[in-house]
Amino acid sequence: MRPFAYERATTAGAARAAHTGDAAYLGGGTNLVDLMRLGVAVPDRLIDVSGLAHDRIERRDDGAIVIGAGVRNSDLAADRTVRAELPVLSQAVLAGASGQIRNQATTGGNLLQRTRCPYFQDVTKPCNKREPGSGCAARDGENHNHAILGHTLTCVATHPSDMAVALTALDASVHLHGRDPLPLAELYRLPHDDASRDTTLAPGDLITAVEVPPPGMPSAYRKVRERASYAFALVSAAVALDVADGAVRGCRIALGGVAHRPWRAYRAERLLTGMPATEESFRRAALAEMENAEPLRDNGYKVPLTANLVCRTLSDLASGEGGRP
Amino acid sequence: MDSGDGVVHAEITVTVNGAARRLRVDTRVSLLDLLREELGLTGAKKGCDHGQCGACTVLLDGRRANACLALAVAQDGAEVVTVEGLAGGDRLSPLQQAFLDEDAFQCGYCTPGQLCSATGMLDEAARGRPSAVTPPGDGPPELDDAEIRERMSGNLCRCGAYVNIVAAVRAAAGEAAR
Fold first, then answer.
1. In this protein, which residues make up the domain named FAD-binding PCMH-type (chain A) (predicted)?
2. How far away is chain A from the Cα of B49, in angstroms, using its nearest Cα?
Protein backbone atom coordinates (compact mmCIF):
# COMPACT_ATOMS: atom_id res chain seq x y z
CA MET A 1 0.00 0.00 0.00
CA ARG A 2 1.27 3.46 -0.88
CA PRO A 3 2.22 5.43 2.25
CA PHE A 4 -0.24 8.20 3.07
CA ALA A 5 -0.65 11.08 5.48
CA TYR A 6 -3.62 11.00 7.84
CA GLU A 7 -5.52 13.79 9.48
CA ARG A 8 -8.73 13.98 11.42
CA ALA A 9 -10.95 16.87 10.34
CA THR A 10 -12.91 18.73 13.00
CA THR A 11 -15.09 20.83 10.68
CA ALA A 12 -16.42 20.36 7.17
CA GLY A 13 -14.60 23.52 6.10
CA ALA A 14 -11.30 22.22 7.39
CA ALA A 15 -11.88 18.88 5.66
CA ARG A 16 -12.65 20.60 2.38
CA ALA A 17 -9.56 22.82 2.67
CA ALA A 18 -7.34 19.81 3.40
CA HIS A 19 -8.52 17.97 0.30
CA THR A 20 -5.82 18.61 -2.30
CA GLY A 21 -4.09 16.49 -4.92
CA ASP A 22 -4.64 12.78 -4.43
CA ALA A 23 -6.39 13.10 -1.08
CA ALA A 24 -9.45 11.06 -0.17
CA TYR A 25 -12.05 11.40 2.55
CA LEU A 26 -12.23 8.51 5.02
CA GLY A 27 -15.61 7.60 6.52
CA GLY A 28 -16.08 4.03 7.73
CA GLY A 29 -13.38 2.88 5.33
CA THR A 30 -15.13 -0.38 4.51
CA ASN A 31 -14.70 0.12 0.75
CA LEU A 32 -11.81 2.59 0.58
CA VAL A 33 -9.42 0.62 2.80
CA ASP A 34 -10.12 -2.51 0.78
CA LEU A 35 -9.47 -0.66 -2.50
CA MET A 36 -6.22 0.72 -1.09
CA ARG A 37 -5.12 -2.78 -0.13
CA LEU A 38 -5.93 -3.96 -3.67
CA GLY A 39 -3.94 -1.10 -5.16
CA VAL A 40 -7.04 0.30 -6.87
CA ALA A 41 -7.18 3.44 -4.72
CA VAL A 42 -3.83 5.12 -4.05
CA PRO A 43 -4.51 8.33 -2.06
CA ASP A 44 -1.51 10.21 -0.67
CA ARG A 45 -3.57 11.63 2.19
CA LEU A 46 -6.64 10.51 4.09
CA ILE A 47 -8.88 13.11 5.64
CA ASP A 48 -10.94 11.39 8.30
CA VAL A 49 -14.42 12.91 8.29
CA SER A 50 -15.94 10.37 10.67
CA GLY A 51 -15.60 12.80 13.59
CA LEU A 52 -17.62 15.59 11.97
CA ALA A 53 -20.96 16.41 13.58
CA HIS A 54 -22.90 14.84 10.71
CA ASP A 55 -24.20 12.00 12.82
CA ARG A 56 -27.91 12.75 13.31
CA ILE A 57 -31.21 12.03 11.61
CA GLU A 58 -33.63 14.95 11.87
CA ARG A 59 -37.08 15.78 10.64
CA ARG A 60 -37.31 19.32 9.33
CA ASP A 61 -40.40 21.52 9.85
CA ASP A 62 -41.43 20.92 6.22
CA GLY A 63 -41.50 17.18 6.85
CA ALA A 64 -38.28 16.34 5.02
CA ILE A 65 -35.96 13.85 6.74
CA VAL A 66 -32.31 14.85 6.81
CA ILE A 67 -29.74 12.11 7.38
CA GLY A 68 -26.21 13.15 8.35
CA ALA A 69 -23.49 11.83 6.05
CA GLY A 70 -21.73 10.25 9.03
CA VAL A 71 -24.76 8.27 10.24
CA ARG A 72 -23.76 4.62 10.32
CA ASN A 73 -25.74 2.27 8.10
CA SER A 74 -26.98 0.25 11.09
CA ASP A 75 -28.19 3.40 12.88
CA LEU A 76 -30.00 4.56 9.73
CA ALA A 77 -31.75 1.21 9.27
CA ALA A 78 -32.82 1.08 12.94
CA ASP A 79 -34.08 4.67 13.17
CA ARG A 80 -37.76 4.59 14.19
CA THR A 81 -38.84 7.35 11.81
CA VAL A 82 -37.02 5.76 8.90
CA ARG A 83 -38.44 2.31 9.64
CA ALA A 84 -41.99 3.59 9.97
CA GLU A 85 -42.10 6.15 7.18
CA LEU A 86 -39.35 5.16 4.74
CA PRO A 87 -39.48 1.35 4.92
CA VAL A 88 -37.87 1.06 1.48
CA LEU A 89 -34.77 2.78 2.86
CA SER A 90 -34.48 0.70 6.02
CA GLN A 91 -35.05 -2.50 4.04
CA ALA A 92 -32.46 -1.56 1.42
CA VAL A 93 -29.78 -0.83 4.02
CA LEU A 94 -30.51 -4.08 5.88
CA ALA A 95 -30.35 -6.01 2.60
CA GLY A 96 -26.75 -4.87 2.10
CA ALA A 97 -23.43 -6.01 3.56
CA SER A 98 -23.15 -7.63 7.01
CA GLY A 99 -23.91 -6.59 10.58
CA GLN A 100 -20.25 -5.69 11.10
CA ILE A 101 -19.94 -3.62 7.94
CA ARG A 102 -23.24 -1.79 8.56
CA ASN A 103 -21.85 -0.78 11.97
CA GLN A 104 -18.80 0.77 10.30
CA ALA A 105 -20.06 2.14 6.98
CA THR A 106 -21.47 5.66 6.75
CA THR A 107 -24.32 7.15 4.73
CA GLY A 108 -21.99 9.34 2.65
CA GLY A 109 -19.53 6.52 2.08
CA ASN A 110 -22.27 4.13 1.04
CA LEU A 111 -23.32 6.57 -1.71
CA LEU A 112 -19.77 6.89 -3.00
CA GLN A 113 -18.70 3.24 -2.86
CA ARG A 114 -17.16 1.92 -6.06
CA THR A 115 -18.35 -0.87 -8.33
CA ARG A 116 -17.59 -4.46 -7.37
CA CYS A 117 -16.78 -5.38 -10.99
CA PRO A 118 -14.00 -7.95 -10.50
CA TYR A 119 -11.97 -6.45 -13.34
CA PHE A 120 -12.07 -3.01 -11.69
CA GLN A 121 -10.67 -4.63 -8.53
CA ASP A 122 -7.90 -6.51 -10.38
CA VAL A 123 -5.06 -4.14 -11.26
CA THR A 124 -3.62 -6.63 -13.76
CA LYS A 125 -6.68 -6.29 -16.02
CA PRO A 126 -7.63 -3.45 -18.34
CA CYS A 127 -10.38 -1.23 -16.91
CA ASN A 128 -11.46 2.17 -18.17
CA LYS A 129 -12.89 3.03 -14.78
CA ARG A 130 -9.60 2.41 -12.98
CA GLU A 131 -7.28 3.42 -15.81
CA PRO A 132 -9.02 5.47 -18.52
CA GLY A 133 -8.12 4.31 -22.03
CA SER A 134 -6.93 0.86 -20.99
CA GLY A 135 -10.08 -0.92 -22.19
CA CYS A 136 -12.82 -3.00 -20.59
CA ALA A 137 -12.08 -6.60 -19.65
CA ALA A 138 -15.67 -7.20 -18.55
CA ARG A 139 -17.30 -6.44 -21.86
CA ASP A 140 -16.16 -9.75 -23.36
CA GLY A 141 -15.23 -11.36 -20.06
CA GLU A 142 -17.20 -12.95 -17.24
CA ASN A 143 -20.10 -10.52 -17.19
CA HIS A 144 -23.07 -12.35 -15.69
CA ASN A 145 -23.36 -9.67 -13.01
CA HIS A 146 -22.91 -6.60 -15.20
CA ALA A 147 -25.16 -3.92 -16.70
CA ILE A 148 -28.07 -4.41 -19.06
CA LEU A 149 -29.09 -0.76 -19.36
CA GLY A 150 -27.19 2.42 -20.23
CA HIS A 151 -23.80 0.78 -20.66
CA THR A 152 -21.28 1.71 -23.34
CA LEU A 153 -18.31 0.16 -25.08
CA THR A 154 -16.29 1.90 -22.37
CA CYS A 155 -17.80 0.31 -19.27
CA VAL A 156 -20.42 -2.28 -18.30
CA ALA A 157 -20.05 -2.00 -14.53
CA THR A 158 -23.01 -1.67 -12.16
CA HIS A 159 -23.42 0.53 -9.12
CA PRO A 160 -23.28 -1.66 -6.00
CA SER A 161 -25.25 0.31 -3.39
CA ASP A 162 -28.67 -0.87 -2.19
CA MET A 163 -29.22 2.32 -0.18
CA ALA A 164 -28.70 4.53 -3.24
CA VAL A 165 -31.42 2.64 -5.12
CA ALA A 166 -33.92 3.32 -2.33
CA LEU A 167 -32.87 6.97 -2.09
CA THR A 168 -33.26 7.32 -5.86
CA ALA A 169 -36.85 6.08 -5.63
CA LEU A 170 -37.42 8.54 -2.78
CA ASP A 171 -36.23 11.53 -4.86
CA ALA A 172 -33.50 12.26 -2.31
CA SER A 173 -30.79 14.91 -2.64
CA VAL A 174 -27.31 15.21 -1.19
CA HIS A 175 -26.19 18.28 0.75
CA LEU A 176 -22.68 19.35 -0.21
CA HIS A 177 -20.40 21.60 1.81
CA GLY A 178 -20.32 25.04 0.17
CA ARG A 179 -22.51 24.01 -2.77
CA ASP A 180 -26.21 23.77 -3.58
CA PRO A 181 -27.93 20.45 -2.85
CA LEU A 182 -27.80 17.94 -5.68
CA PRO A 183 -30.63 15.47 -6.46
CA LEU A 184 -29.43 11.88 -6.66
CA ALA A 185 -30.74 11.89 -10.24
CA GLU A 186 -27.99 14.43 -11.01
CA LEU A 187 -25.36 12.97 -8.67
CA TYR A 188 -24.95 9.67 -10.47
CA ARG A 189 -24.05 9.36 -14.13
CA LEU A 190 -23.84 6.80 -16.92
CA PRO A 191 -20.36 5.95 -18.18
CA HIS A 192 -20.72 7.69 -21.57
CA ASP A 193 -17.13 8.14 -22.76
CA ASP A 194 -15.59 8.53 -19.28
CA ALA A 195 -16.18 5.59 -16.98
CA SER A 196 -13.69 6.85 -14.40
CA ARG A 197 -16.29 9.16 -12.91
CA ASP A 198 -19.12 7.46 -11.00
CA THR A 199 -20.67 10.80 -10.06
CA THR A 200 -20.81 14.42 -11.18
CA LEU A 201 -19.00 15.58 -8.02
CA ALA A 202 -15.81 17.61 -8.38
CA PRO A 203 -12.66 16.52 -6.52
CA GLY A 204 -12.96 17.58 -2.89
CA ASP A 205 -16.75 17.91 -2.87
CA LEU A 206 -17.94 16.76 0.55
CA ILE A 207 -21.37 15.22 1.17
CA THR A 208 -22.64 16.45 4.54
CA ALA A 209 -26.17 15.00 4.53
CA VAL A 210 -28.88 13.28 2.52
CA GLU A 211 -32.29 14.92 2.34
CA VAL A 212 -35.42 12.84 1.73
CA PRO A 213 -38.62 14.75 0.83
CA PRO A 214 -41.65 14.26 3.11
CA PRO A 215 -42.74 10.61 2.79
CA GLY A 216 -46.02 10.04 1.04
CA MET A 217 -46.37 6.59 -0.46
CA PRO A 218 -46.07 3.03 0.79
CA SER A 219 -42.73 1.65 -0.34
CA ALA A 220 -40.70 -1.54 -0.39
CA TYR A 221 -37.30 -2.87 -1.45
CA ARG A 222 -36.74 -6.28 -2.93
CA LYS A 223 -33.35 -7.75 -3.82
CA VAL A 224 -32.36 -10.88 -5.70
CA ARG A 225 -28.93 -12.32 -5.02
CA GLU A 226 -26.99 -15.55 -5.35
CA ARG A 227 -27.25 -16.40 -1.65
CA ALA A 228 -29.80 -15.40 0.98
CA SER A 229 -27.63 -12.83 2.76
CA TYR A 230 -24.40 -10.85 2.53
CA ALA A 231 -24.15 -10.62 -1.25
CA PHE A 232 -24.48 -7.85 -3.78
CA ALA A 233 -27.63 -7.64 -5.85
CA LEU A 234 -28.06 -9.45 -9.12
CA VAL A 235 -30.99 -7.07 -9.50
CA SER A 236 -33.01 -5.10 -6.98
CA ALA A 237 -36.04 -2.83 -7.03
CA ALA A 238 -37.07 0.06 -4.81
CA VAL A 239 -40.72 0.86 -5.36
CA ALA A 240 -43.13 3.43 -3.95
CA LEU A 241 -46.78 3.13 -4.97
CA ASP A 242 -49.84 5.26 -4.33
CA VAL A 243 -53.16 3.63 -5.25
CA ALA A 244 -56.54 5.38 -4.98
CA ASP A 245 -59.88 3.90 -6.08
CA GLY A 246 -58.12 1.01 -7.74
CA ALA A 247 -55.93 3.21 -9.94
CA VAL A 248 -52.27 4.18 -9.72
CA ARG A 249 -52.13 7.79 -8.55
CA GLY A 250 -48.35 7.86 -8.44
CA CYS A 251 -45.36 5.54 -8.40
CA ARG A 252 -41.61 5.66 -8.30
CA ILE A 253 -39.42 2.77 -9.34
CA ALA A 254 -35.63 2.53 -9.08
CA LEU A 255 -33.55 -0.47 -10.09
CA GLY A 256 -30.22 -1.75 -8.77
CA GLY A 257 -27.73 -4.13 -10.36
CA VAL A 258 -28.71 -3.19 -13.90
CA ALA A 259 -26.70 -0.05 -14.72
CA HIS A 260 -23.74 2.19 -13.92
CA ARG A 261 -26.06 4.16 -11.66
CA PRO A 262 -29.27 3.46 -9.77
CA TRP A 263 -31.71 3.25 -12.68
CA ARG A 264 -34.91 5.22 -12.35
CA ALA A 265 -37.61 3.47 -14.40
CA TYR A 266 -39.27 6.65 -15.66
CA ARG A 267 -40.85 4.92 -18.62
CA ALA A 268 -42.62 2.36 -16.44
CA GLU A 269 -43.69 5.10 -14.04
CA ARG A 270 -45.26 7.16 -16.85
CA LEU A 271 -47.04 4.15 -18.29
CA LEU A 272 -48.48 3.17 -14.91
CA THR A 273 -49.74 6.51 -13.72
CA GLY A 274 -53.54 6.61 -14.01
CA MET A 275 -53.80 2.94 -14.97
CA PRO A 276 -55.72 0.28 -13.01
CA ALA A 277 -53.55 -1.10 -10.21
CA THR A 278 -53.57 -4.62 -11.60
CA GLU A 279 -50.89 -7.18 -12.26
CA GLU A 280 -51.56 -6.77 -15.98
CA SER A 281 -50.70 -3.05 -15.84
CA PHE A 282 -47.67 -3.73 -13.66
CA ARG A 283 -46.34 -6.36 -16.06
CA ARG A 284 -46.86 -4.20 -19.13
CA ALA A 285 -45.00 -1.29 -17.51
CA ALA A 286 -42.15 -3.48 -16.28
CA LEU A 287 -41.69 -5.07 -19.70
CA ALA A 288 -41.76 -1.64 -21.37
CA GLU A 289 -38.89 -0.50 -19.16
CA MET A 290 -36.90 -3.52 -20.32
CA GLU A 291 -37.42 -2.80 -24.03
CA ASN A 292 -34.16 -0.86 -24.17
CA ALA A 293 -32.18 -3.51 -22.33
CA GLU A 294 -29.02 -4.70 -24.08
CA PRO A 295 -27.83 -7.77 -22.23
CA LEU A 296 -24.23 -8.94 -22.54
CA ARG A 297 -23.02 -12.50 -23.21
CA ASP A 298 -23.76 -13.84 -19.71
CA ASN A 299 -26.51 -11.66 -18.24
CA GLY A 300 -29.59 -12.07 -20.43
CA TYR A 301 -31.30 -13.60 -17.38
CA LYS A 302 -31.44 -10.14 -15.81
CA VAL A 303 -34.05 -8.90 -18.30
CA PRO A 304 -36.95 -11.18 -17.29
CA LEU A 305 -35.70 -11.25 -13.69
CA THR A 306 -35.92 -7.46 -13.43
CA ALA A 307 -39.36 -7.35 -15.06
CA ASN A 308 -40.66 -10.05 -12.70
CA LEU A 309 -39.14 -8.32 -9.69
CA VAL A 310 -40.75 -4.96 -10.51
CA CYS A 311 -44.10 -6.59 -11.23
CA ARG A 312 -44.05 -8.59 -8.01
CA THR A 313 -43.02 -5.66 -5.83
CA LEU A 314 -45.75 -3.45 -7.31
CA SER A 315 -48.32 -6.23 -6.80
CA ASP A 316 -47.31 -6.70 -3.15
CA LEU A 317 -47.59 -2.98 -2.47
CA ALA A 318 -50.96 -2.79 -4.23
CA SER A 319 -52.29 -5.64 -2.10
CA GLY A 320 -51.17 -3.93 1.08
CA GLU A 321 -48.02 -5.94 1.70
CA GLY A 322 -44.86 -3.97 2.27
CA GLY A 323 -44.38 -0.77 4.14
CA ARG A 324 -46.82 1.97 4.95
CA PRO A 325 -45.82 5.60 4.19
CA MET B 1 5.49 12.23 10.94
CA ASP B 2 7.26 11.30 7.72
CA SER B 3 10.26 9.09 8.45
CA GLY B 4 12.01 9.99 5.18
CA ASP B 5 11.04 7.03 3.01
CA GLY B 6 7.53 8.36 2.59
CA VAL B 7 6.24 6.17 5.41
CA VAL B 8 4.06 8.12 7.82
CA HIS B 9 3.64 7.30 11.49
CA ALA B 10 1.21 8.61 14.06
CA GLU B 11 0.69 8.27 17.80
CA ILE B 12 -2.59 6.82 18.98
CA THR B 13 -4.09 5.71 22.27
CA VAL B 14 -6.45 2.74 22.23
CA THR B 15 -7.97 0.81 25.09
CA VAL B 16 -7.69 -2.90 24.39
CA ASN B 17 -9.52 -5.34 26.67
CA GLY B 18 -9.61 -2.68 29.36
CA ALA B 19 -5.96 -1.57 29.22
CA ALA B 20 -5.01 1.78 27.66
CA ARG B 21 -2.15 1.49 25.17
CA ARG B 22 -0.11 4.33 23.70
CA LEU B 23 1.24 3.25 20.31
CA ARG B 24 3.13 4.58 17.32
CA VAL B 25 1.65 3.20 14.13
CA ASP B 26 2.38 3.25 10.41
CA THR B 27 -0.75 4.88 8.96
CA ARG B 28 -1.22 1.86 6.66
CA VAL B 29 -1.57 -0.66 9.49
CA SER B 30 -5.02 -2.17 10.04
CA LEU B 31 -6.48 -2.57 13.49
CA LEU B 32 -6.26 -6.32 12.90
CA ASP B 33 -2.50 -6.22 12.25
CA LEU B 34 -2.00 -3.89 15.20
CA LEU B 35 -3.73 -6.38 17.51
CA ARG B 36 -1.97 -9.44 16.12
CA GLU B 37 1.52 -8.16 15.30
CA GLU B 38 2.08 -5.34 17.78
CA LEU B 39 0.01 -6.39 20.79
CA GLY B 40 0.33 -10.17 20.51
CA LEU B 41 -3.42 -10.68 20.56
CA THR B 42 -3.69 -13.41 17.93
CA GLY B 43 -7.28 -14.36 18.73
CA ALA B 44 -8.74 -12.20 15.97
CA LYS B 45 -7.87 -14.04 12.75
CA LYS B 46 -6.87 -12.86 9.31
CA GLY B 47 -9.06 -14.83 6.91
CA CYS B 48 -9.67 -12.86 3.75
CA ASP B 49 -8.36 -9.40 4.79
CA HIS B 50 -11.16 -7.90 2.66
CA GLY B 51 -14.15 -7.80 5.01
CA GLN B 52 -15.77 -10.85 3.49
CA CYS B 53 -15.25 -13.59 6.08
CA GLY B 54 -15.64 -12.00 9.52
CA ALA B 55 -12.77 -13.95 11.14
CA CYS B 56 -11.27 -10.62 12.30
CA THR B 57 -14.44 -9.41 14.07
CA VAL B 58 -13.84 -7.44 17.28
CA LEU B 59 -15.98 -5.09 19.35
CA LEU B 60 -15.06 -1.51 18.50
CA ASP B 61 -16.60 1.03 20.87
CA GLY B 62 -19.08 -1.66 21.83
CA ARG B 63 -20.11 -2.62 18.30
CA ARG B 64 -18.97 -5.58 16.24
CA ALA B 65 -16.68 -4.53 13.40
CA ASN B 66 -14.24 -6.03 10.91
CA ALA B 67 -10.77 -5.16 12.22
CA CYS B 68 -9.24 -5.77 8.79
CA LEU B 69 -11.19 -2.83 7.31
CA ALA B 70 -10.39 -0.43 10.17
CA LEU B 71 -7.19 1.56 9.96
CA ALA B 72 -5.38 1.62 13.31
CA VAL B 73 -4.54 5.30 12.92
CA ALA B 74 -8.25 6.15 12.79
CA GLN B 75 -8.96 4.42 16.13
CA ASP B 76 -7.35 7.00 18.41
CA GLY B 77 -9.44 7.05 21.58
CA ALA B 78 -11.33 3.89 20.69
CA GLU B 79 -12.19 1.01 22.98
CA VAL B 80 -11.49 -2.43 21.53
CA VAL B 81 -12.56 -5.79 22.92
CA THR B 82 -11.13 -8.91 21.30
CA VAL B 83 -11.99 -12.55 21.89
CA GLU B 84 -9.30 -12.54 24.60
CA GLY B 85 -11.43 -10.03 26.51
CA LEU B 86 -14.78 -11.82 26.42
CA ALA B 87 -14.27 -14.05 29.44
CA GLY B 88 -14.14 -12.77 33.01
CA GLY B 89 -10.84 -14.27 34.08
CA ASP B 90 -11.28 -18.03 33.89
CA ARG B 91 -15.04 -17.71 33.74
CA LEU B 92 -16.26 -18.06 30.16
CA SER B 93 -19.03 -15.84 28.89
CA PRO B 94 -22.38 -17.65 28.47
CA LEU B 95 -21.85 -17.49 24.71
CA GLN B 96 -18.38 -19.05 24.93
CA GLN B 97 -19.79 -21.80 27.17
CA ALA B 98 -22.62 -22.38 24.69
CA PHE B 99 -20.08 -22.83 21.86
CA LEU B 100 -18.40 -25.57 23.92
CA ASP B 101 -21.69 -27.18 24.94
CA GLU B 102 -23.03 -27.26 21.38
CA ASP B 103 -19.70 -28.19 19.73
CA ALA B 104 -20.05 -25.09 17.54
CA PHE B 105 -16.79 -25.45 15.61
CA GLN B 106 -14.60 -27.84 13.76
CA CYS B 107 -11.18 -26.32 13.01
CA GLY B 108 -11.82 -23.26 15.18
CA TYR B 109 -10.30 -20.65 12.89
CA CYS B 110 -13.51 -18.66 12.50
CA THR B 111 -14.54 -19.11 16.15
CA PRO B 112 -13.05 -15.91 17.64
CA GLY B 113 -14.84 -13.89 14.99
CA GLN B 114 -18.05 -15.86 15.50
CA LEU B 115 -17.86 -15.21 19.26
CA CYS B 116 -17.21 -11.48 18.96
CA SER B 117 -19.83 -11.12 16.24
CA ALA B 118 -22.48 -13.03 18.20
CA THR B 119 -21.67 -11.02 21.33
CA GLY B 120 -22.28 -7.80 19.42
CA MET B 121 -25.31 -9.26 17.67
CA LEU B 122 -27.03 -10.29 20.91
CA ASP B 123 -26.58 -6.75 22.18
CA GLU B 124 -28.01 -5.31 18.94
CA ALA B 125 -31.04 -7.57 19.18
CA ALA B 126 -31.58 -6.69 22.84
CA ARG B 127 -31.62 -3.03 21.85
CA GLY B 128 -34.39 -3.74 19.31
CA ARG B 129 -32.23 -3.39 16.22
CA PRO B 130 -33.93 -4.87 13.15
CA SER B 131 -32.45 -7.22 10.55
CA ALA B 132 -33.54 -7.91 6.99
CA VAL B 133 -35.88 -10.66 8.23
CA THR B 134 -37.40 -8.76 11.16
CA PRO B 135 -41.12 -8.07 10.68
CA PRO B 136 -42.24 -4.42 10.89
CA GLY B 137 -42.96 -3.04 14.34
CA ASP B 138 -41.12 -2.05 17.47
CA GLY B 139 -39.80 -4.14 20.30
CA PRO B 140 -36.93 -6.60 20.48
CA PRO B 141 -37.01 -9.17 17.68
CA GLU B 142 -37.42 -12.81 18.59
CA LEU B 143 -34.11 -14.50 17.81
CA ASP B 144 -35.36 -17.54 15.93
CA ASP B 145 -33.05 -19.46 13.61
CA ALA B 146 -33.88 -17.25 10.62
CA GLU B 147 -32.90 -14.14 12.59
CA ILE B 148 -29.70 -15.73 13.88
CA ARG B 149 -28.67 -16.88 10.40
CA GLU B 150 -29.35 -13.50 8.84
CA ARG B 151 -27.63 -11.54 11.60
CA MET B 152 -24.57 -13.82 11.57
CA SER B 153 -24.19 -13.84 7.77
CA GLY B 154 -21.00 -11.76 8.00
CA ASN B 155 -19.16 -14.70 9.57
CA LEU B 156 -18.22 -17.56 7.29
CA CYS B 157 -17.27 -21.03 8.49
CA ARG B 158 -15.39 -23.07 5.93
CA CYS B 159 -15.93 -26.26 7.91
CA GLY B 160 -19.65 -25.68 7.66
CA ALA B 161 -20.33 -25.87 11.41
CA TYR B 162 -23.28 -23.53 10.98
CA VAL B 163 -25.89 -25.86 12.44
CA ASN B 164 -24.13 -25.99 15.79
CA ILE B 165 -23.15 -22.32 15.67
CA VAL B 166 -26.83 -21.40 15.30
CA ALA B 167 -27.67 -23.76 18.19
CA ALA B 168 -25.01 -22.15 20.40
CA VAL B 169 -26.16 -18.63 19.63
CA ARG B 170 -29.78 -19.66 20.20
CA ALA B 171 -28.84 -21.14 23.58
CA ALA B 172 -26.94 -18.00 24.60
CA ALA B 173 -29.80 -15.80 23.41
CA GLY B 174 -32.25 -17.85 25.49
CA GLU B 175 -30.02 -17.52 28.53
CA ALA B 176 -29.72 -13.78 28.05
CA ALA B 177 -33.52 -13.49 27.77
CA ARG B 178 -34.05 -15.32 31.09
1. 1-217
2. 8
B145 has a chain A CB within 8 A of its CB: no
Asked if residue A91 lies in contact with residue A323, where contact means CB atoms within 8 angstroms, the answer is yes
Amino acid in the structure at residue A231: A
User: Is-contact A238 A166, C-beta < 8 A?
Assistant: yes
B78 plus B118 within the same structural domain: no
Contacts A317 to B, Cβ<8 Å = none
- Give me the domain span that covers residue A41: 5-48
Of B50, B66, B131, the CB nearest to A100: B66
For residues B106 and B135, membership in a common domain is answered with: yes
CB A254 within 8 A of CB A169: yes
Residue type, A169: A
Which residues span the domain enclosing B171? 94-177
What are the pLDDT digits (tens) for A154-191? 999 999 999 999 999 999 999 999 999 999 999 999 99
**Over chain B, what is the mean pLDDT?**
95
Complex ipTM: 0.97
| In-domain check, residue B164 | yes
Instruction: Identify whether B1 is part of a domain.
Output: no
pLDDT digits (tens, 9 = 90+) for B28-66: 999 999 999 999 999 999 999 999 999 999 999 999 999
Pick from B147, B117, B56, B121: nearest CA to A34? B56
CA distance A270 to chain B (A): 30
In a domain, B4, yes or no: no
Rounded average pLDDT over A120-128: 98
